[in-house]
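User: quick one, sequence for these tokens?
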């Protein structure tokens, strides 16, 4: 089998609610969709959802690099993922979101060629997957609680709150949500690097009684040493997000003793190929993983959901971006089951099962290689 043609196009869809974080505001999908067509007629789909403050790439940089990447792999065997990803990862250390789009299109083709859903191809079986729902930083405690109430009404069992305000301001927001939702709902907070070491100690100790499931990325991405000190100091589990892009980061973080959990995102790792390595390293160290997202549609989320389905060591899900997109440009793929808040369903269509509705998106941006 050979790669015959690659289509590249932009996809822009706003969120109903922008997600404010200490590193910037995520306003929706400013994405890139990749379609790989083979000489056998099989088609693989991938999506990049860059968020520059974290991934370091953008829709424009992905778009500029995508044609070069497409030329690099055109004519080669899409099923030889080890070789294709080695070429793609040699091409650039940057553009992780774009590399993940190509990676998930290759895995989609592998599943279709085998006639297997991706989770089964990876050795997994159906198991229940539930995502949390994220609340961005709100201006007032009342607004934070109102958003949490909405999530509770939809039947979710986990809420993720973005934090990282000055001083101890976050404590009132998180305490008010715990008071409102009661003890039965998991609350996790994500600081997105918004504290330094003293602020992290003070805030996490002040939230001790609120029984947080974990604190995500409390310190700057590079600060592994203070993350280890913090882990020794506080009882609440710590999860690395911006500190772990790839398998090398995972190995260093675990060797440093800095984390309880790792957040795998395909858009940081450059796809499933490296995401699987991160999980394997974590699992060997007794470290559970979460899987997260940026502004993906159900296309990118489908690939992530298949990875989670296939690897029970990935036990926390934050695959909620498609809830908030103003419209859905995807056919097939993962579905949210509204009868149980946050439940994700995958069917047994081969590959990741998701395809882009070609009537959506920016037709004028189409590049065909
Ligand atoms: Mg995070």
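Assistant:
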């Amino acid at each position: 089998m050979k790669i015959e043609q690659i289509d590249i196009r932009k996809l822009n869809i706003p969120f109903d609610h922008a997600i404010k974080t200490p590193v910037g505001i995520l306003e929706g999908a400013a994405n890139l969709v990749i379609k790989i067509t083979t000489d056998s007629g099989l088609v693989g789909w991938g999506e990049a959802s860059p968020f520059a403050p974290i991934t370091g790439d953008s829709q424009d940089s992905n778009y500029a690099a995508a044609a070069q990447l497409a030329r690099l792999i055109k004519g080669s065997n899409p099923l030889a993922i080890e070789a294709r990803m080695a070429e793609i990862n040699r091409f650039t250390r940057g553009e992780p979101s774009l590399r993940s789009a190509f990676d998930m299109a290759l895995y989609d083709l592998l599943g279709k060629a085998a006639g297997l859903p991706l989770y089964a191809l990876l050795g997994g079986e159906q198991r229940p997957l539930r995502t949390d729902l994220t609340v961005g930083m709100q201006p007032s405690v009342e607004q934070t609680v109102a958003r949490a109430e909405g999530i509770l009404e939809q039947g979710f069992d986990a809420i993720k709150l973005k934090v990282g305000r000055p001083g101890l301001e976050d404590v009132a927001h998180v305490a008010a949500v715990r008071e409102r939702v009661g003890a039965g709902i998991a609350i996790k907070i994500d600081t997105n690097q918004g504290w330094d070491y003293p602020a992290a100690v003070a805030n996490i100790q002040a939230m001790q009684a609120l029984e947080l499931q974990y604190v995500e990325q409390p310190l700057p991405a590079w600060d592994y040493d203070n993350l280890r000190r913090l882990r020794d100091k506080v009882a609440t589990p710590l999860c690395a997000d911006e500190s772990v892009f790839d398998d090398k980061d995972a190995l260093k973080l675990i060797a440093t003793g800095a984390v309880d959990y790792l957040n795998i995102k395909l858009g940081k790792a450059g796809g499933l190929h490296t995401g699987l390595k991160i999980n394997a390293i974590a699992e060997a160290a007794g470290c559970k993983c979460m899987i997260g997202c940026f502004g993906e549609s159900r296309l990118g989320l489908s690939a992530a959901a298949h990875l989670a389905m296939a690897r029970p060591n990935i036990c926390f899900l934050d695959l909620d971006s498609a809830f908030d997109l103003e419209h859905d440009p995807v056919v097939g793929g993962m579905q949210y089951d509204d009868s149980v808040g946050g439940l994700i369903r995958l069917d047994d269509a081969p590959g990741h099962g998701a395809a882009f509705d070609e009537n959506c998106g920016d037709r004028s941006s189409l590049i065909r290689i």
